[in-house]
Amino acid sequence: MASIPSDLRYTKDHEWARREADGRIRVGVTDYAVQQLGDVTLVDLPSIGADLGAADHFGDIESVKTVSELFAPLGGEIVEVNENLEDRPELVNEDPYGEGWMVVIQPSAAEEWEELLDAAGYEAHLSALEG
Questions:
Q1: Distance in angstroms (rounded) separating the CA atoms of residues 8 and 62
Q2: What is the pTM of this model?
Q3: Can you give the CATH number for the domain in which 101 is found?
């Protein structure tokens, strides 16, 4: 079973979101997504300053199995990008909730946070997918 940290929020597209102390949102892909992808070989991320709406495509993740699109869990401006993934995309496999994070968003509508799935909701979503 995939790891689902209880302090994060989730999308049905398998992105996670962590609210930082300053209100910004750190985003990555879930352990479940990593298991489905296999070995990650490339992560294509947006530039700092890009504006996104909730559920907007913000990049791509390539693995030995497939290419998948990445979607923003909420709207806002990209204020940080994990440049380590350029040379070390395997960080997504090794530590999806830590060093494998992808972007940090300055949210434009804080209420969108409440629309994301909590850990129990994401776990129920995964159960329905596998069911």
A1: 24
A2: 0.96
A3: 2.40.50.100
